[in-house]
Write a structure and sequence with these properties.
alpha/beta, Rossmann fold, S-adenosyl-L-methionine, 40% helix, N-methyltransferase activity, four-stranded antiparallel beta sheet
């Protein structure tokens, strides 16, 4: 059985436990019980092998200030449980299931208590106990289908199972089916590029690096990055940092980090835009799939206050429109880059098409693009196929940024890769996800990026190719007699005739004006005070292919054939 099929089957078996909730909970509420219990059961299975040793040690160290460290040493994990109960032992006393289960949960170490609190699970215990189903549900979680021991389910598989359960929960809740995670093939592509050609990471011994995701969800991106790096070089340590606003997904992310033995203290909860938990910190790698098309009005006061600090804060280059906060995450990522003299950083971040071109010259989005391009931070933009995400079918792009381009072939250059057609159809859609990026396509895209050469789907530009000066072209104002209206001897502009032109940065403005404007308006002039520099990346224009329209005779023939078919169908209907 394939990995994906095995994960889907295991998640389905766990989700089937929700049948025991019928009547007490509505279908869209099942996840409120199944998600936290799956996490707790995973903890239970992981600690099973050292349970008795931990209980024995607890009796001798429970009054010592260092008991936390000592008990973690015995459990062999970053967490432990000092209650005498396990899921199986809870079944020995059905009459006291609620009190005993609470005793069991209270036995977890403090780092797990934080996770349980974020799940808001206490109220669900009360509900299930009052309705007489708590014992039944816990019993279901002790059956073979819910055996989550690491000998049976690896950490990687467990992360997938968490996400599959969230997807099922989201669908029953009429939420975006994939708003909390990103398809694994997309993450794999991002990680391929993120680590590309970093020799010290790929071949060094005992190297420690950091990676950060400002919208980490369940931690899928961080997990895949760590897994990938360990395949390349098992001696390299990748310390994962992330922030997540959604309580449930934060709880799962932190649980996943604990389960894998990572430092779960590096996963923070809270709103990244208004409450940056990693202020002043920088990282070797940054990757993210932040929400796009979502307003940031609730964070407006905090964001604007930080913007007033200029480049002492994250938002010095400018602010996007309040209707879409994705470029604020982009600026957050840039602010977390290490200085080049300290090794620099690389970013891979997903956006929709909006950050490529929205906003006129001088606007916030244009100024953000200007900052990125004039500081030579943009390495590449990769257009992904449509319909590969669970919650949207629109065009999406991976932006690759780096501040260590100096002296390389990429200096002053930007590569655009159009991978829009590199996909295969899924047999069954998952939400909006109808397509996958196959392994061979991931390899092709990675190679295109690495080779840094032009092809039918790879084009290379100078950073200045995306810049322009927006000039304001004025025409003179005349009165009814056709005389020029003058003020202090100067002709006054007719605002109704005012126009603008975008002059590429590589062109001389006066030459452009004389060639493109004066032949059609000899009396025009440029109001230089209104000139503004702007940047946009018209991605689709660079890859546009003209397709000649079909011959009219061919179209007419097709129409006639359709009409004949319709006539026959109508005749059959009326004959009846």
């Amino acid at each position: 059985m394939s990995l994906s099929a095995n994960i889907s089957e295991k998640a389905a078996l766990i989700w089937a436990i929700a049948d025991k909730l019928t009547g007490v909970y509505k279908p869209h509420e099942y996840g409120e019980v199944i998600l936290p219990l799956t996490v707790i059961r995973r903890f239970d299975c992981i600690l099973a092998d050292t349970k008795d040793a931990v209980l024995e040690k607890f009796e001798t160290v429970k009054n010592l200030p260092m008991r936390d460290v000592l008990l973690r040493n015995v459990s062999g994990k970053a967490f432990y449980n000092t209650s005498k109960y396990t899921f199986e032992r809870l079944l020995d006393d059905p009459d006291n299931i609620e009190a005993n289960f609470r005793d069991y949960l209270n036995g977890f170490s403090e780092n797990v208590q934080d996770i349980l609190e974020k799940f808001k699970f206490d109220g669900q215990i009360t509900t299930m106990a009052n309705k007489g189903i708590l014992y039944i549900v816990i019993k279901e979680f002790t059956t073979p289908k819910a055996n989550l021991h690491p000998d049976i389910i690896s950490n990687l598989e467990m992360g997938y199972i968490f996400e599959e359960i969230i997807r099922r929960f989201s669908e029953s809740h009429n939420e975006d089916a994939g708003q909390h995670y990103t398809p694994r093939e997309v993450i794999q592509l991002m990680v391929n590029i993120l680590f590309y050609d970093d020799n010290d990471v790929l071949s060094g011994n005992n190297v420690a690096k950091t990676i950060y995701d400002p919208a980490c969800g369940t931690g899928g991106m961080l997990s895949v990055a760590e897994e990938y790096l360990h395949k390349l070089n098992a001696s390299t340590e990748l310390m994962a940092f992330g922030q997540e606003i959604n309580d449930q997904t934060f709880a799962i992310c932190k649980a996943d980090m604990l389960i894998k033995g990572n430092n779960a203290d590096f996963i923070k909860d809270g709103n990244t835009l208004s409450d940056d938990q990693f202020e002043g910190q920088t990282f070797d790698y940054i990757l993210s799939n932040p929400p796009f098309g979502r307003e940031w009005k609730n964070e407006k006061a905090a964001v604007e206050a930080e913007a007033k600090r200029g480049f002492a804060g994250r938002f010095g280059p400018g602010l996007p429109a309040a209707s879409d906060g994705q470029m604020l995450f982009l600026l957050t990522a840039i602010s977390k880059m290490k200085e080049p003299q300290n090794g620099g950083s690389r970013i891979a971040i997903i956006h929709n098409g909006s950050p490529l071109f929205t906003g006129d010259a001088g606007s916030g989005p244009s100024e953000i693009r200007r900052y990125i391009l004039e500081n030579d931070l943009l390495e590449a933009i990769i257009a992904l196929p449509n319909d590969i995400f669970y919650n949207t079918g629109i065009a999406t792009y991976i932006w690759v940024l780096s501040n260590k381009k100096a002296g390389t072939k990429r200096e002053g250059k930007v590569q655009l890769i159009n991978a829009n057609n590199l996909y295969e159809k899924r047999r069954k859609a998952l939400g909006n996800k109808r397509n996958d990026i196959p392994e061979n396509a991931i390899e092709e895209i990675t190679k295109l990026y690495g080779d840094f050469t032009e092809s039918e789907i790879s084009k290379i530009f100078d950073t200045t190719d995306f810049g322009f000066t927006k000039i304001t072209v004025e025409r003179p104002l005349k009165d009814e007699n056709g005389q020029l209206v003058l003020k202090k001897g100067k002709p006054q502009p007719d605002t109704s005739l005012r126009d603008t032109e975008n002059v590429p940065l590589k062109e001389d403005i006066q030459e452009y004006f004389e060639r493109e404007v004066l032949p059609f308006a000899p009396d025009a002039w440029i109001d230089e005070k209104k000139s503004k520099v702007g940047y946009e990346i018209p991605f689709t224009r660079y890859f546009y292919k003209y397709e000649a329209p079909r011959p009219s005779a061919e179209i007419m023939k097709e129409i006639i054939e359709i009409e004949k078919e319709l006539e026959g169908a109508l005749a059959e209907v009326f004959a009846e």
